[in-house]
Every structure is written in structure tokens, then in C-alpha cells.
Amino acid sequence: MSLLLGDIVAALGGLLEGDPQTPIERLAPLEVAGPQELSFLSNPRYRQQLAASGAACVIVAPALRALALERGPCIVTEDPYVYFARTTQLWKQRHSAPLRAGIHPSAIVDASAQVHPTAHIGPLCVLERGAVIGAGTVLKSRVTVAEGCRIGARCILHPGVVIGADGFGFAPHNGQWLKIEQLGAVCIGDDVEIGANTCIDRGALQDTVIEDGVKLDNLVQIGHNVRVGQHTAMAGCVGVAGSATIGAHCTIGGGAIVLGHLNLADGVHISAATVVTHSIRRPGHYTGMFPIDDNAQWEKNAATLKQLHRLRERIKALERSIDAA
């Protein structure tokens, strides 16, 4: 279960400063890597960890080449983080048995569902009437793809994912809730990865759409009629309410909430735990959380916030009186 440094560089490129015959037994974080392990440094702020690391070899950017050589062997590449990601892929290709195409005997597949011959359908999956699974797509255990939902090529759906459950639609009537039947479906593009126990609701009238290259972490909730643009990524426990539109190349931090019917432009980045309450028309980094504090101090600050509107009105009145003087 090892790779030679020379084999890694031959497969992925980069400049090797060191012995190509050095065996690598494992990939490891910089601060704990040992003499038979490969690590990486992508953020210059952690250069002190580089000097102290016991790794057999460290992947670094050209700007850190000299510092890395003072410590020992290194692989020099323009983007160490991307290189490390490709190294993990190479490692898995060489050391893990590939998933075989086909449908596990315990899966339940409706006769009208379409499964590409190269797709992998794992144990206890359910594909309902009219579901479509594209080429090279992997459904791990207990994935449900509901009626009429479509998944593109080369997607990965982790255990417990539910695609196409009913959206949360109810009309108030005489003190009760009248169900609005969800008549749309879910359409997922190519190269999408969806984390464990994430749910994507079917649309009410039109489809919920997840475009190509989107990456969703575990326990993400996507409401009905949402549209998520290409190559957007969402961390764990994000919630997107119905009919929101998220642009391309956005990132949404863990636990953040996007309210319904809002629009986020391409290139919007939302910090963790932020609640997005209005549409964002320009790309950029947005944060909307109140920092943690000692509870007594937090209560004082919260009480002050409640007075801001009254203080604002008093200041405006003072300004008017000064202007009139």
C-alpha cells in the first residue's frame, strides 16, 4: 500500500526535489506527517509547521521552495492544494477496488426507471417510476430517487440522500393546512456530488434544478423550485428555502440559511451561520452573524441593538434642529 515519489510526479507533474525512489505509505496532515508520509502546504501562514514537519516530502508552491528544501524533499507545483487533491484521487485509484457498474440485489428499481449500464446502484436504494440515472453515476446505500427525477452523468450520491420528496407546500384553510400537490420533479446535472442524508425537494409546478458541478455537503436541505448554479458548493446543514435562486460559483458556509424567493448573483460567498434575508446582486463575501460573547455582555449588546431605531430618530431630529438654527 505505497507509491514511489517518482510515480506520483510521473502521473501528476510537478518538480520533485528529492529521491524518486522514496516510498510513500500514507498521505497525512503537515503537523503529524512522518518519515514515510506525504503532506502539503498551501497557506504560507503555516510555514512554521513546514520547518518542523517530519514528512518524507511536502507539496509546496514555488514561493516556498527554498524554505521547503531547508527541511528536506518537496514537490513544487503552482497550486499545492489542487495537487494534493489529485494525489488523493491517484491514491484511491491505485489502492481501492473500483465500484462495479450494476444494481445491487437489494435495490428496488421501478420497471420504468432508466439506469445507464455504467451506473452503480448500491444496497437498499429505491428508484421510483420514471427516474433516470446517467452514465457513471454512483448511488451509495439507501439513496432514494423519487418519481420522474433525473440525475446526470458521473454524479455521486452518498448514503441516505433523498431526491424528489414532496416540497413543503400547504395552504391555510379554516384553521387547517391544505396540501399543495408537488407536480414538478428534480433535475440534477453532471458531475454533482451530494453528501449523506441531504434532501432535495421536488418542485411544486416546475422542477428543482441543480446544475453541473454542484457540491453539497451532508444534511443540506434544498427546498422546492430552488435553482443552484454551476459549481456552487454548500457546507453541512445549509438550508435553502423554496424558490430561491443561487448563482454559479457561489459558496455557502455551514449552517447558513437562504430565505425563499431570493436571488444570489454568481460569485457570492456566504459565511457560516449567516441568514440571508434579501437578494444579493453583486459578487462578494457576505456575513450576517452576531459574534459569540460572554452571555452577560451579549445581553447588554442585544439590549442596545433594540434601542438603535429610537436613537436614530433622535439623531435625525437633532440634525433637523441644527439645520433650522
Write the layout of secondary structure elements.
Elements lengths: L2 E2 H8 L2 E3 L5 E2 L1 E2 L9 E4 L6 H6 L4 E4 L4 H7 L2 E3 L3 H16 L6 E2 L4 E2 L4 E2 L4 E2 L4 E2 L4 E2 L4 E2 L4 E2 L4 E2 L4 E2 L4 E4 L4 E4 L2 E4 L6 E3 L4 E2 L4 E3 L6 E3 L4 E2 L4 E2 L4 E2 L4 E2 L4 E2 L4 E2 L4 E2 L4 E2 L4 E2 L3 E3 L4 E2 L7 E3 L8 H12 L1 H17 L1
Characterization of this structure:
With 325 residues, this protein is α/β, with parallel strands linked by helices. The protein folds into three domains: 3-95, MurE/MurF, N-terminal domain (Udp-n-acetylmuramoylalanyl-d-glutamate--2,6- Diaminopimelate Ligase, Chain: A, domain 1, 3-Layer(aba) Sandwich), CATH 3.40.1390.10; 102-286, Hexapeptide repeat proteins (UDP N-Acetylglucosamine Acyltransferase, domain 1, 3 Solenoid), CATH 2.160.10.10; 295-324. 20% of the residues lie in helices and 27% in strands. The strands form six sheets. The protein has a ten-stranded parallel beta sheet, with no helix packed on it. A nine-stranded parallel beta sheet has the order 9-12-15-18-23-26-29-32-35, with no helix packed on it.
